[in-house]
Each structure stands twice: as C-alpha cells, then as structure tokens.
Amino acid sequence: MARTALVTGASGFVGSAVARKLVERGWTVKLLARPSSIRRNLEEIDAEVVHGDLRDPQSYAHALKGIDDVFHVAADYRLWVPDPSEMYRSNVDGSVALIRAAAAAGASRIVYTSSVAVLGLKGDGTVSNEDAPVTVSDMIGHYKRSKFLAEEAVRKATAEEGLPVVIVNPSTPIGPRDVKPTPTGRIVVQAANRQMPAYVDTGLNVAHVDDVAEGHLLAHAHGRVGERYILGGENLTLQQILAKIAELTGGRPPRIKLPTTAVLPIAFGAELAARIARGWEPFATVDGVRMARKKMFFSHEKASRELGYKARPAQQALADAIEWFRSAGMIR
Question: Is residue 242 situated within a structural domain?
Fold first, then answer.
C-alpha cells in the first residue's frame, strides 16, 4: 500500500524536486503551499495541493490528516529581507510548530530540511562536515541565523519530546525548475547572460537538485532519528563555476578578481535602492558579500556511508540548470 506524505515548500526549488521523486516512487503526496505561491512547479506534480502557511498552524491542520510521513522543505530563503521578523516566524517558529503537529497527527518519520549554512566553516578551503564546531555568533545575516536557530529548536524538540525527525543539510542545489530563481540560480543566469564581468575569491559546494531530492528519500528510509546529513556535491571556487558556465554557453569567463571590500559598497547601494524602490530585490547583498569571505566547502561522506547518497558532477547540474533557464526565457 502506498504511503502518504505531506511536502512543504513544493512550489519552491528543492521542495518540488522532492515531491516529484515521491510521486515517481508511487507515493500519495499532499503539497502544502501558500495561496500566493508561484504555481508553475505545483502544476506539473500529480498531487493534492492544500493551502496553508507555516506562520499559521491552524492552516495546515487539514493537510496533516491521513499522512504517514512529512518532508518539511519549506523555508524563507532570501539573503535580503525588508522585515526580518517574517523570516524568523517562518523558519524558526513555523518549523517547530509543524514538526510537533506532524508528530501529533501520527507521522512516523519527519525529514526536516536544514542547510549547510548552519554548519561550522574554517573558510580557508578546508572541507567541513556535520561535526564542525559552530555557534549562533558565527552566523552571517538573518537567513543563516534563522536557519541555525530553527535547526537548534528542531533538534531540541526531537531529543526532549521523542519526535521522529531526521535532518538533512543541502549544500548549494543547482538544476532545473528554479523558478524564482534562488540566489545561486541568479548567479547562473547572470553569468550565462554575460552579466558578471568580475568575481570574488569564494567557493561553493555544488549539488544537483535531483540528487538532493533523492537524499531526502534516502534520509527517510535509512536516516537515524536526531542525526543530520549533508546532501552535497562538488567543491568548486566561484571562478571554476563561472568557467564551467562559460564553457557550457560558449562565452568567456570573467578574468577580473575583486576583493570583497570593493564589492561591499556596491551591495550597500543595491540594498538602499531596494528599500527606496520597495518590492525590488537587490542584485547584490551585504550579507552575501560577507558570506563570500569564506569558501563554503563540505563533505557528504556521512550521507554516502549511512544513507547510500550519491552525487553527480557539478558540470551536469550546471548544464541542466542552463538548459532549463534557457527554455524558461531567462537566458538569452
């Protein structure tokens, strides 16, 4: 008999990929989405859409009826937000309320999507893992801080209340159906459109979004309650990423390397313009520049060993992303 799962955040990038994997495997799937969510990803998934908001626990009570498992992927993922309190209400308060409600509704397994943003970093290119020491004071910006506090609260509730939660920490997902797009997706689009004449000396762990989605299902099947697992891919400098994008699009990679100190004033100006314009998101953010001071390199060895997780090369993730962005008219 097919299991029934509720997926939050299915209108988004990673959530839609998780929902598709579940449907492909024969699961009965419910999708929790806000009425204002972009519908493009939802329309392509054979599942029931239930309207609800993480900030309103009463709104998702109906969605939890009759479910066997929950994949809580939803999060407010923005590196700049005019009202940070909304982000904390969704990412921290909403996440804890949802996993408690899911457990009370009888969910036998809850996969909570955190982020590598909450993990410790040395910043010198050394690869980090799930056990790297870190505190909330290491978090740069409201997104990272909110996700750190959210994971801490989820781990505490799991341990103290016996909730059946497994945590996954995706790195930098890239691939098709990034409809917004995400901050990383914007980098791919801008680079493919020859709109990135320079770069800073930073690094990311690039993972195909479909591998990250598969990792969620593996965490459900094999993950240990209370444990967290990095769902990552290939560690690359930003220069290497831009070179691969140039190769895939027939362009030239930028050759000018800028120090972050030179980019910070631009980011300050972009944020000021966004506050004045209202409704416009800055193309560069102060928090994004500050994060770029450290290379965000990670190992997914634990997920490979315990879950059977596998990651394809970053080149494939970038190629699939570029193909989709081009079909969506985002790349000229």
Answer: no
Q: Is residue 9 within 8 Å of 28, Cβ to Cβ? A: no
Domain span at residue 68 reads 4-177+207-234+297-314
- H helix runs in 194-280, sequence order: 209-222, 238-249, 260-277
Tell me if residue 300 falls in helix, strand or coil.
coil
- pLDDT tens, position by position, 62-110: 899 999 999 999 988 776 677 788 889 999 999 999 999 999 999 999 9
pTM across the whole model: 0.91
> What is the count of structural domains for the chain?
1
Q: Is residue 71 part of a domain?
A: yes
**CB–CB of 119/130 below 8 Å?**
yes
* Residue 152: CATH number of its domain: 3.40.50.720
DSSP string for 55-117: TBGGGGTGGGTT-SEEEE------S--S-HHHHHIIIIIIHHHHHHHHHHTT-SEEEEE--GG
